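Note to self: the last two entries modelled the partners one at a time, which told us nothing about the interface. This time every component goes in together.
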Amino acid sequence: MSVHLLVDFGSTYTKLVAVDLEKEEIVGTSRSMTTVKTDVLEGFNLALEKLEKAHPDMGEITAISACSSAAGGLKMAAIGLVEELTAEAAKRACLGAGALVNHVYSHHLSKKEIKELKQANIDIILLAGGTDGGNKECIIHNAKKLAEAKLDVPVIVAGNKDAEDEIDEIFAAAGTEYYIVDNVMPKLRELHVESAKEVIRKIFITKIIEGKGIKKAEQKTGEIIMPTPEAVLQAAELLAKGHEDEEGLGELMVIDIGGATTDVHTIGRGLPKRTEVILKGLQEPFAKRTVEGDLGVRHSANALLSIVSPFGFRKYYREPDAEEDDKLDDDFFENGVKKRQEQIDYLPESDEEKAFDRALARICTDYSMSRHVGSVEVVHTPLGNMYYQTGKDLTSMKYVIGTGGVLIFNEDAKAILREVQHKSDKKLELRPTDSEFLIDEMYIMSAMGLLGQKHPKLALKLLKRHLR
Amino acid sequence: MHTVVIGVIGADVHAVGNKIIEHVLKKHGFNVVNIGVLSSQEDFINAAIETDAKAILVSSLYGHGEMDCKYMKENCEEAGLGHVKLYVGGNIVVGKQDFKEVEARFKKMGFDRVYPPGADIEEAAEQLKEDLGSP
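The predicted structure of the combined assembly is written out below.
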């Protein structure tokens, strides 16, 4: 028997999934706290012990693959020219590679912005700007500013190819670590992120995990091949597309609610469904990921309360059809939030506390959906009403899959996912309307993304078997 | 090769003339960035910034062009595109008006060239070459 072990060094937990390659089944899973501050292998060994104890007849581990989002994950800054065009394209490249992007800059970098970058503790900078043959003055200016700043952060240059040679000289002379790749927006509104993503992953594997103290794990686990969010995105893509004669599920969405962030992945074109709808803005990636840094059920719980206010919170806390409950005062919400923020590994016991977690997760789902999906705007023309669509039309998504601790361990997870369809009162959002909900009960999405690198068909089979 | 941005402004969906303009300008050796119909001033300006365009050619056929083009020159200047040539053409005003007056109004709004309904795009292409000089 040969077992492939899949490891996810998460921000809170190190999670293991053991897959028997011959029997084509999951032997077992286990987890332990991530111990990145002392020695990341402590947590790994503990989890492995647990796994071996629970499954003493588990076969020999012949291969290990790992992904990581520990020690803050991969933090990137995206720089472009026009906010809605190359800056957005650069941001999407970072997100697609599994990064967290809290800093996005457009046009000429100012001193203030350079200072911000210095203090931001960024792992990689992605520098874009201009279509091929288009504006090169701005990206060259920004390259000079970055070179002068001596940031000690690798820079990936993915802008106007006409500016490449000059930027090459600037960074070489300054001793900046830099990589020149294809333009993220070679033609107006055309998105091209693959080559940037590839280099991001390469830098992540070789350098970033070392700085975060995770490199040590490689003695045991072999190369850590990607950031966890990218593994989830790859699993989602595999599940949607299928592999050889094993059919996929078609267009789908994955919502991953974590302690600090909420990720939404959609696989699908999301093109307009009607002829009178005209698509606006930058091209959308087929596999799209957005991540919300202010939506999470532990580290970010306080931010949630300020987004919705205690009054709004009540709506999410109540059972969908229940009457208004005046007994709950604002302190109840504030204390609940505080408790979760202080104790990030808190697990709810009572029904009341479980309902509280559910409310937090519902807010995360509703708001992350609002920011992920496209929307339509009506334009009145002499030829009748026409519609602009920005972003993806996800109304006919077939499946919505939930993952992340709060969804997996909540008994009423599908009630949380139903927020996906929550009608917005602000604009015409193109949310899924009639999808089937599935839960990643065994918490295997990221593991299957890893397994899929070598055994795509098996990973696909296991995903189809275990998502319910 | 000079880059020019073309498109149809406002809530106007006339797509055929837009394609003809693209075709002719390409034949004349321009790098044409066509942002298509239903385009806002912002779309024109953003496209011109990223592609380093030397001219913006605005089309309008539905009669409301004058409103859609209001402050376009000022917005270009605001975006650092003061040097970019601005052309406009089509049925750009409401009803039938004396073209001399229309032209004067649009020139005052900051447009460099103004074309009446049925203007020949070949002619405009020649004038564009004249205005932009050799690349």
